[in-house]
Amino acid sequence: MGSKPYSKLAIAAAYAKYYLRASSKNKELTPTVYNVVDEVLSDARKVKHSDIEAERYRLQKSKQVISFTDYGKSGNIFVKKVADIAKNALKPKKYAQLISKLVAQRGAKTILELGTSLGITTAYLARNKGTEVQTMEGDPTVADIAQHVWNQLGLQNISTTIGNFDVTLDQLEGKTYDVIYIDGNHNLEPTVRYFDVLLKHSNAQTLFIFDDIHYSKGMEEAWEAIKAHSQTTTTIDLFFIGLVYINPSLVKQHFELRY
Ligand SMILES: C[S@@+](CC[C@H](N)C(=O)[O-])C[C@H]1O[C@@H](n2cnc3c(N)ncnc32)[C@H](O)[C@@H]1O
C-alpha cells in the first residue's frame, strides 16, 4: 500500500539539490511570499516553548510500550515504544516553530491538524493566542498520551477526533479552518483526496500545510497534483513541508525557499 519512503541517503541528496536551487534572497517574490520570508522564515526560531520541549524530551525517555494501529501504512497493529514514536514520528522543534509562526502570521483562529500522534506539534499550534485547534488521530492510545501532554501544559483549546481520517473527515460538517495542517497518511491517493475534501472546509485565506512532501515518490506526485489543482494558486516548497495558498487573487506560481 502506497510507495516506499526514500532512503535517508536519497533524501539527503534531494535536500542538497533543493538547497542549491532554493532561494534565500528576496528576489522576484510576490508580496505573500515576501511576507513569509520576511516575517516567518527569519523569525521562526525565536518561537520558544521550553515546557513543550521538556514534554518531548520526557516522551523520548519514556519506557512505555503500546499497541499502535498504523493507519498511515498497513493498517496493522504493532507493538511500539513511545520513545521511538517521540524520536521518529514528530515534527522536530525547528519545524514545529515554523508551523507555529505561520499560524501567528496568518492570524489563524481555527486550526485543523490531521495526525496528532503524541501531540507535540499540536501543542505548538495551540500556544498561539486565541486559537481553537481540532486534531485528528486514528490510534486511541497515542491520542490519550497526547491528551496527558496537553494537560501537563495546561492547554484547554484542543479537541481530538479519534478514528480513520477516511471516516472522520466526513464528520467535520460545515466547519471552516484558517490553517489546515496535514501530517498523516503519507500516500499519494489519500493525500490528494484529503485536499479535495478539506477544500470544502476552507476559505480564500486558508493556508494548507502539507508535511513530508519529498518523503517518497508517491508524496512527490501528490505534491505535484496539489500544485496543479485548479484551486491552488501560490505554493511554497520548504522541502520538509509545503505551503499551499488557494486565494484566487494570488498568482498561480510555485516557489522553493530555504529554511
Ligand atoms: C507523523 S504522525 C503526526 C505527528 C504530529 N503531527 C507531530 O508532529 O507532533 C502521523 C499520525 O497520523 C496518524 N494517521 C496516519 N494515517 C491516518 C489515518 N488514515 N487516519 C487516522 N490517523 C492516521 C498516525 O496514527 C500517526 O499518529
Can you tell me about this structure?
- The protein is of the alpha/beta class and 259 residues long.
- It has a single domain, classed as Rossmann fold.
- Helices cover 41% and strands 19% of the residues.
- It has ten helices and ten strands.
- Strands 5-4-3-6-7-9-8-10 form an eight-stranded mixed beta sheet, sandwiched between helices. A two-stranded antiparallel sheet has the order 1-2.
- The longest helix is centred in the first third of the chain and has 14 residues, at 8-21.
- The model has no long low-confidence stretch (mean pLDDT 94).
- Bound molecules: S-adenosylmethionine.
- S-adenosylmethionine (SAM) binds at residues 71-72, 89-91, 115, 117, 120-121, 137-139, 142, 164-166, 183-185.
Short description:
With 259 residues, the chain is α/β, with parallel strands linked by helices.
Topology (elements, then pairings):
Layout: H1 8-21, H2 31-41, H3 50-60, E1 65-69, E2 77-81, H4 82-88, H5 93-106, E3 110-114, H6 120-126, E4 132-137, H7 140-153, E5 158-162, H8 165-168, E6 179-182, H9 188-199, E7 207-211, H10 217-228, E8 234-237, E9 241-245, E10 253-256
Parallel strand pairs: 3-4, 3-6, 4-5, 6-7, 8-10
Antiparallel strand pairs: 1-2, 7-9, 8-9
Bound molecules: S-adenosylmethionine.
S-adenosylmethionine is lined by residues 71-72, 89-91, 115, 117, 120-121, 137-139, 142, 164-166, 183-185.
Please mark out the parts with pLDDT under 50 across 5 or more consecutive residues, or reply none.
none
- Number of discrete domains: 1
At the fourth CATH level, what is the homologous superfamily?
A: Vaccinia Virus protein VP39
The pLDDT mean sits at 94
Question: Which ions and ligands are bound to the chains?
Answer: S-adenosylmethionine
Question: Which value, in Å, is the CA radius of gyration?
Answer: 17 Å
| Main beta-sheet strand count, sense and barrel state | 8 strands, mixed
Topology as a string of helices (H) and strands (E)? HHHEEHHEHEHEHEHEHEEE
> Within the largest sheet, what's the order of strands?
5-4-3-6-7-9-8-10
Number of helices: 10
Share of residues in helices: 40-55%
